[in-house]
Amino acid sequence: MTDAAELRARTREFLAAHPPATTGRGDFLAARFDAGLAWVHYPAGLGGLDAPRSLQAVVDAELEAAGAPDNDPRRIGIGLGMAAPTILAYGTEEQKRRFLRPLWVGEEVWCQLFSEPGAGSDLAALGTRAVRDGADGDWVVNGQKVWTSSAHLARWAILIARTDPDAPKHRGITYFLCDMTDPGVEVRPLRQITGEAEFNEVFLTDVRIPDDRRLGPVGEGWKVAQTTLMNERVSIGGMRLPREGGMIGPVAATWRERPELRSHDLHQRLLTLWVDAEVARLTGERLRQQLAAGQPGPEGSGMKLGFARLNQEISGLEVELRGEEGLLYDDWTMRRPELVDFTGRDAGYRYLRSKGNSIEGGTSEVLLNIVAERVLGLPAEPRNDKDVPWKDLAR
Questions:
Q1: Which residues contact 167 (CB under 8 A, 6 or more apart)?
Q2: In terms of Cα–Cα distance, which of 113, 82, 79, 106 is closest to 185?
Q3: How far is CA 218 from the centre of its chain?
Q4: Pick from 234, 342, 384: which is nearest to 297 by CA?
Q5: Contact 369, 297 (CB under 8 A)
Q6: Where would I find the beta strands (DSSP E) of the chain?
Q7: What is the pLDDT tens value at each position of the chain, 395 positions in all?
Q8: How many Å separate Cα 39 from the centre of its chain?
Q9: Which residues contact 151 (CB under 8 A, 6 or more apart)?
């Protein structure tokens, strides 16, 4: 199906058969997936219709106009933006049919077990081990992961672990799908500067993962992980926002509502950041259009870089604009939220939480290297560990 008019008609037929006002939310979402209107560019039977990705906007517009429920994408963003495209690209048919439907409907939340205490920015240095128990048996996993969003809510995790310590660090990694309810998986809250424990650390002790939950060939986990990471950066940096959406919105609103706080210097800085935010918003729209025509590339790294810088500069300006009020903080209560709400809390929260933007989803320093090498074509940074067996690396 490649015709927008045909797809629009199909969506309206679906709405007539499943009126949002009288159909339960879960039933509606499940029926939408089965009708191929979840991801129209996915294969038929897996939530899609083998249609061009650009036609998703046609479906979304019809459903929004009809008041249809969404699948709460902020709560299940890791599954939608990272796990799903990776499973689609590398999963077996059985894996795709098992995981994609409950993932999209929101029945199963996903998290990401990638970063480790000694392998954050240099992710390929990870030390979590997966050892085969017999030629065709389970994998036994031991190690620790950190900065894991939604681990306290997740049923499933995308996991990379070292399966060959004798190979160089990028070539001895394998990618798995881990059941977070399995014995040996322990999730501990990681309290942040905001007072919340939105992140977690995860300890894996003799966790057994069947080989049929391996994603991609043994030893090629780094290649699989690159698909995950590219999609992650696009989902973070290329979010669809209205004008004055995101962090710039509260600052602009305060400026309009509180003229007594204004100064010439703050006005100039706000104008500069407002323009930067609008440029980022439009660049994100262009990135989504490029994505509709192909696959995510390193451009997502540039968008994620801009997202982190803008959030930190805008939140800093907001605190300064509010003066003494900006030093207040609404609530230091330790809680484990389901999602991050930048605009639903005060300026102090936005200022503190935005500090994490330059770490999560790839550190800004690593992303600068990616942009330099893969977008601008500059010489690669010298690396003397690429061909050294992982077990021989200094740690």
A1: 219, 389, 390
A2: 113
A3: 24
A4: 234
A5: no
A6: 110-113, 129-132, 139-145, 156-162, 173-179, 185-190, 199-209, 214-215
A7: 568 999 999 999 999 999 999 999 999 999 999 999 999 999 999 999 999 888 998 999 999 999 999 999 989 999 999 999 999 999 999 999 999 999 999 999 999 999 999 888 889 999 999 999 976 689 999 999 999 999 999 999 999 999 999 999 999 999 999 999 999 999 999 999 999 998 999 999 999 999 999 999 999 999 999 999 887 766 665 567 789 988 999 999 999 999 999 999 999 999 999 999 999 888 888 777 776 665 555 667 778 888 899 999 999 999 999 999 998 898 889 999 888 777 778 999 999 999 988 888 778 888 888 888 888 889 988 888 888 999 998 87
A8: 17
A9: 111, 113, 157, 180, 187, 200, 202
Q: How far apart, in whole angstroms, are the C-alpha atoms of residue 235 and residue 233?
A: 5
**Residue 315 in tokens:** 């939140």
SS3 388: coil
Name residue, tokens 């796990």.
Answer: 83
Closest C-alpha to 302, from 381, 224, 369: 369
DSSP state of 325: G
**CA nearest to 44, candidates 105, 100, 110:** 100
**Chain mean position to CA 265:** 36
Q: How far is CA 39 from CA 66, 296, 359, in A?
A: 18, 16, 30
Q: How far apart are CA 266 and CA 37, in angstroms?
A: 46
Nearest C-alpha neighbor of 110 from the set 128, 86, 93:
86
Question: What is the b/e burial string over 51-84, where b = at least 16 CB atoms within 10 angstroms of the residue's CB?
Answer: bbbbbbebbbebbeebebeebeeeebbbbbbbbb
CA-closest candidate to residue 286, choices 308, 303, 270: 303
> Known catalytic residues?
232
Angstrom distances, CA of residue 273 to CA of 97, 110, 248, 319, 362? 45, 34, 8, 14, 23
Q: Comparing C-alpha atoms, which of 222, 214, 131 is closest to residue 171? A: 222
Distance CA(17)–CA(40), nearest Å, equals 19
